[in-house]
Amino acid sequence: MAIELGIIGTEYLRDFIESAMKRLNLGVKHTLYTYESFSDLADLYHHIPARITGIITSGSFPSRIILKTYPSTKRIIRPFNNDNAGIYKLFLKLSRPGHCLNLSLIYADILEASGLDLEEFLYGESETSYPEAIDRYTASQSLESLLNAEQRLLDQHLKLWRENKIDLSVTRFSYIATQLEKAGLNVQFAYPSVSYLRKVCLETIQAMRINDLRGKQVAVVQITVKNEGDITHDLHNLLLSLKRFNTVNQLDFLIRPTPLGFEVLTSRQVVGHITNEYTSCQLQSFLQHRHDFSIFVGYGIGEDMYQARIIAVDANREPARPPYAACCLITERAELIGPLRSGLPLVVSRAVSDAIQVAPQKPGLSSL
Fold it and tell me: How far, rounded to the nearest angstrom, does the alpha carbon of residue 12 sit from its chain's CA centroid?
């Protein structure tokens, strides 16, 4: 399936974004989703179709607001801020021949918001990366502070104009630029360089492809039953239920019989779906509701089919051991996740760490 990139921006940026994406010709489809102010972002993001698995936003403020509002989102979300080249280009343009640029009469919220001094940034010896600085700043802010940032910075612009302390506003906020233009004030919008936008897009697309491959990683589900006497009839009914679960949920299941139950070959993505991202087990609940004998479910996610099968069998044994009594999952990194029923499973590493390997050697003990 072709990659589709989502872009969150404003109408103010539409022409720039569409022109830049046409120039970049990245070979992927993109859709622009627009907002007017930061308060619109949560609802806008909520309505973006599920097929969009990667999004770039017009700055760290929008991306951070989304991530703080939806902390469990699985989408790739990357901001395209201003970059140093874009800022230098703007001020080089403002420093036209015969015009003396007085930095003391310029208020540049793009720098102040991240704690940077304009003169030091332009002429100092420190090599500050603006994208890194603004990303650190937004990460340290609360959701409320981020949502109020536009109005707070706009008020500061207007205050400085009223006090005749500036004769030029430089902003990276579309909302602020629009409001200052409506007021007839001298404002410059700081656009990022196209090369920087290309870098952000390519990094996002690569992360989307990696996520897609990770979702297709092989997974195995081991399902066994516990009942006194002949279980042939139980297994027949269990198979019917498995097929029903597969049909209802439209999953990619390949069901194979085992001596004590069934083995399901599938993918990490499917396992994530039926376990609500490793917090509960829809499959066990569905099966147990339909049958009166004990059913144990173990999930294994492996680097290959062999590993997935081995650890799925191991995971299937965990429910029979107290205190689990519910299905468990083991990853390719030997992480035991369970019990998958409370919504708050424990994650326990079953791997022997380097520290554990080394420590017993001193007193002559085994790492076991």
Answer: 26
Contact 190, 82 (CB under 8 A): yes
What residues form DSSP beta bridges with 225? 295
Tell me if residue 41 falls in helix, strand or coil: helix
Q: Which long-range contacts (CB under 8 A, 24 or more apart) does 239-242 make?
A: 241/286, 241/287, 241/290, 241/291, 242/287
Of the two residues 206 and 341, the one the predictor is more confident about is 206
Distance CA 37, CA 35 (A): 6
Q: Quote the pLDDT of residue 324.
A: 47
154/113 Cα distance (integer angstroms): 12
pLDDT band of 131, cuts 50, 70, 90:
confident
pLDDT of amino acid 345: 66
Q: CB of 119 within 8 A of CB of 101?
A: no
Cα torsion through 92, 97, 99, 105, rounded to 10 = 10
Say which residue the tokens 């779906």 belong to: 273
Provide the angle, in degrees to the nearest 10, between the axes of the packed helices 143-162 and 60-69: 150
How far apart (Å, rounded) are the C-alpha atoms in residues 123 and 142? Answer: 32
* Cα–Cα distance list, 124 to 97, 109, 121 (Å): 22, 18, 6
What tokens were used for 59?
């700055």
Residue 352, phi then psi, degrees to nearest 5: -90, 110
| Length, in residues, of the chain | 368
Largest CA distance in the chain: 97
Eight-class DSSP state of 297: E
Q: What percent of the chain has pLDDT over 90?
A: 57
Backbone angles phi, psi at 143, to 5 degrees: -60, -40
Q: Which residues contact 363 (CB under 8 A, 6 or more apart)?
A: none
Q: Are 66 and 57 in contact (CB under 8 A)?
A: yes
Helix (H) or strand (E) holding 156: helix 143-162
CA distance 250 to 201: 32
Structure tokens belonging to residue 140: 């340290």
Q: How far apart are CA 112 and CA 189, in angstroms?
A: 15
Q: What would the two tokens of residue 358 be? A: 């080394």
